[in-house]
What does this fold into?
Amino acid sequence: MRRTRVLPLAALLLCTPALTGTASAGSAPGAGDAARPLRILLTNDDGYAAPGLRMLFQRLTAAGHEVTVVAPSTDQSGAGTRLTSGSSVRVEHPEPRVWAVDGTPGDSVSFGLAAVFRDRAPDLVVSGTNFGPNVAALATHSGTVGGAIAALERGVPAIAVSTGELAVPVPEQILNAMRPTNDFTVKLIDRLRARAGNGRLLPAGVGLNVNHPVVGGDGRGTARGAAVTSQDPQPVLAATYTDAGDGTWKVGVALVPAPNRRGGDAEAVTADKVSIAPISPDWNTGTADATRIALLLAGLRP
It folds into this structure.
């Protein structure tokens, strides 16, 4: 993440009127003509038939956007930014406005931009809504975030959307919480469009990783606000390996308790706030870190 972009984006997203409120009907048009629906490529890592994606498809469509699903045929959770290497890919078109790609979220976005949207790129790629959070180290390995990164690499604005918290998931709660997540996503897109004028929805090379908490016993509660955050460095999960004695090892995964970093995505979600973390399609560090490394390696020669 390019740290120098966080403050300007924070101002863009969180200045009045409040993002958590209803968008003003008199807001200026964004991404061109406000009367024209946004052309959105919708993907995910849970598969094209997953309830989270289907719910967001319906919500974005109801908001007046022109949505086309280009998503994996099967569950690709944890695929990260992987792109499949091969001479062919199987793609199905099971229903209008839906394409199912036998590959990763990155493969789906790549196919969508090169084939489905070959004549004109979409205004926005949205990846989600994911079942479960993608904060801290989870975001690094997330196929949901990976789908957004694939779009950013190709110059298309992108938002990754997830619902959950750092706890053992309760399916019914998360599914219920996807509704306020999707409502917030529509408001977020409205805000970006209102501030875009005739330009891009987001600065070039910058996307958003949005994580909505599960609020209330049934998950239907409203978040306590929204915060522009950074990715918490904590690992979240730790794997254990037990030798089965036959050349295989049994793998276990457990949550690793750790303090939440102040201003991080995990802190926001834990506080029942929506986390909005700016992301970029590369792994460059900030200028301060680059300077430190240059000093450490000064004079080093082959």
